[in-house]
Design goal:
The protein is of the alpha+beta class. It has six helices and eight strands. Strands 1, 2, 3, 4, 7 and 8 form a six-stranded mixed sheet that branches. A two-stranded antiparallel sheet has the order 5-6. The two termini are 27 Å apart.
């Protein structure tokens, strides 16, 4: 048991609960101030923010695209400073799913209304009773297949192209970037109030 009262498995469950809910108090309890997410390279810039703020931004980004976001944990294993988590990502694609490259719009997938359900493996590093690092092995090809993007379903490809040509993709990227930044600021605002 760590100083925060959560063992490694509870910390792992807590991290994914933050992504599902955007709970700033849980983020402050579970996520170390020096937290780094290696997977934030495809996310809005605020998701690269160190500490709990970056996790809150990542959750806002995912929830903006996927309603009823869930991460049921299938299994965990851990040692003193790492936790390996096998889970499923489940949700319905109800908002634009915007992916970034070098902080700029890379791809915007218009809402399809489709369900996603695929496996992921996450490696979390622990320090001082909190999560300080994250990296993942995700089956993104399965997710993109479930969304009709890979291989491209003709209707989805046409919608994605239309979104890019009409500027909707850029507007979606700007909107989700703003949402992620606002979520990252939640923790700062909560601390200022306390």
């Amino acid at each position: 048991m760590d100083a925060m009262g959560m063992d490694a498995t509870k910390l792992a469950h807590g991290l994914f609960r933050i992504l599902e809910t955007g709970d700033p108090a849980l983020a402050a309890d579970v996520v170390h101030e020096d937290f780094h997410n290696r997977e934030a390279v495809v996310s809005p810039p605020a998701c690269k923010t160190p500490g709990p703020a970056g996790v809150l931004a990542s959750g806002a980004w995912m929830r903006s695209a996927f309603s009823d976001l869930r991460f049921p944990v299938l299994g965990t294993a851990h040692n003193d400073d790492q936790v390996w988590v096998r889970l499923r990502m489940q949700a319905r694609h109800t908002g634009p799913f915007v992916r970034f490259r070098d902080g700029a719009l890379d791809q915007a997938i218009p809402p399809t209304g489709r369900e996603i359900d695929f496996e992921q493996i996450h490696v979390l590093r622990l320090r001082d009773g909190q999560v300080i690092g994250h990296e993942a092995v995700r089956d993104d090809i399965t997710m993109l297949g479930q969304l009709g993007v890979f291989p491209p379903a003709p209707a989805t490809a046409v919608r994605m192209l239309a979104w890019r040509l009409t500027g909707r993709a850029a507007r979606a990227a700007a909107h989700v970037t703003e949402q992620a930044a606002e979520a990252a600021a939640l923790l700062r605002n909560k601390r200022d109030e306390d």
